[in-house]
Amino acid sequence: MSWKIIEKYRKTLAAETGIAHKKWGGKVTVCLVYPNHYAVAMSNLGFQAVYALFNSSPDILCERAFLPDSRELREYEKSASRLLSLESQRPLSDFDIIAFSVSFENDYLNIPAIFDLAGIPPLSAERGEKSPLVMGGGAALTLNPEPVADFLDLICIGEGEAVLWPFLDLLKNETVPDRTTLLQKSAQLPGIYVPRFYSFSYDECRVTAITCTEGVPSRVKRVWSADLDLAGATTVILSPETEFSDMYLVELSRGCPHGCRFCAAGYMYLPYRQRSLESLKKEVAEGLKHRRKVGLVAAAVSDFRGIGELSRHILECGGKVSVSSLRIDGLDEEMIDVLKASGHRTIALAPEGGSQRLRDLIGKNISEEQILSACDRLIRKDILNLKLYFIIGLPGETDGDLLELVGLVKRIREMVIEAARGRGRLGEVILSVNPFVPKPSTPFQWCGMENLKSLEQKANYLQNAFGRLSNVKMKLESLRDAYLQALLSRGDRRLSTFLIQNSRLGNWRRAAKELRLNTDAMVYRNIIPGDTLPWDVIDNHAGDRLRQEYLKAFGNVYNREWRA
User: Which of 79, 274, 404, 524 could form a disulfide with 2 if both were Cys (CB 3.0 to 4.6 A apart)?
Assistant: First the structure.
């Protein structure tokens, strides 16, 4: 191994503060792998929580590995070395278990590269008894594990704290004689999906049937933690090289009580749960020993009961508060005062739909009056930089919806400019515009993504509308990246070969072409409710509610169109 890489590992470990590293010997060894770079991985609270959970067991030793950055990859190529763990610089093949933590579908692209660097066959069927057991978990895998199911021996469906303890107890049982028996026993545990025991039938672009081996459940139930005071996540490793290096992260809740029809968080983490104020105050006290700023993490921070008291407590203890974004209808004066006192110069709000019709369609349940009122309250508190999140390409979106979006932004811009004149400084409206990507386990899972040509026309329209306006900046997510995300979100097991080919070629479009894979059919297809879905192997406890919300949004309009 190149001395440069080893030296970087040592410097990284020296800079970290957190969990003390265990010594090898007499333990079940786990290498927790995040299929992206170190800085991204260590900004992920779920990754840190699972790392802490593994290491909380005296019988488990857990280390970490990450996708090397481009400079590191060149070093690996020069030295022809294997990917090593961060803590002890051991090859991944030395571990008993390799555990992938995958939060985002686009990280599926990097999993074959990890196997290649580790010198381990990517397909589970090609690995022998002496190979590490390969497992995976995380939000993306809970939504739809099928694109990478052929890579993994078992998959955790749901929240790590609820899934892993029964599995670890089984793993430490010395009476388990071989891998097949271990996997058979694992498949009986709540939240454990063993892909080899399930078979899929296909036509050109869809799953036609799912069958399972006798003795395993026909559907794998998603599991969750009932008590977040016992399971809630916080920062466990502090590192200077991550996006949130200046703050200590504390999880407030899981799920979202609003259930917007396009959003996976509101359904994947059902039921909505909150931590107690008392436990959070203890976490804050610990966090303020290490960082002055406390980052409050939740899908809906402003929905947390006691958010005002918690925020005041942080300020009174000499800290500052940071939040990612806030519900427009949950933004009150007290919260704004806290954010201002914490030094926030920009606040992010998420209208999502540009017109009232679209906001009603997606279940956002906020009016234009509420949006303008929230912006006015922020501006009156001298917060003149507003970041607004919008989605284009929502099902049934029209030119009229885009026209209303432009009008809304212009009204907000005028409010900012008028206030800025009186204060003698500039304000800015930053638009983050993202194309709609259909997500499994949501009421919009049956809706196809709008085609790229149409999305490009809409993006050009908005860029022309806002390009001439001062104090307005628009940032557009890559449409091609969104297309790829939709493919990986909706795909099935046939994508495993595609992912391997992409890793070899470095070009996913060329990989799809060589494999004659009809990606457009997977991405753009409107699915008839009742058709078999790749992720139907997962029981997410929300099936009836998804159909009800779909019907509330569309009735039978799309159903008739899709059958025609």
Answer: 79
